[in-house]
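Agenda item 2: zinc ion complex prediction
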Amino acid sequence: MKRDTVTYNLTSDGACEHCGGYVVAETKRCPQCSKFPIKLHHCPKCKNVSGASEAKCWKCGRVFMPEGDYL
Ligand SMILES: [Zn+2]
Ligand SMILES: [Zn+2]
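Presented output:
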């Protein structure tokens, strides 16, 4: 599987990881805070998506802000 083609989706209803608001499966934007409901870093430099636990972009190496750069 090529990592740069991975898409991230909510697979079931749950709570937004940013604001705790209720989001239904396959929602791309939380209705409450309008962010992607799963915390994922979105690299401002190369636009790749990394997991929230990553300290820096897996592709270009840019260091993420601790509470920023989320999708
Ligand atoms: Zn939210
Ligand atoms: Zn990057």
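Discussion summary: Residues 16, 18-19, 21, 30, 32-33, 35 surround zinc ion (ligand 1) (CB under 6 Å).
Owner for follow-up: CH.
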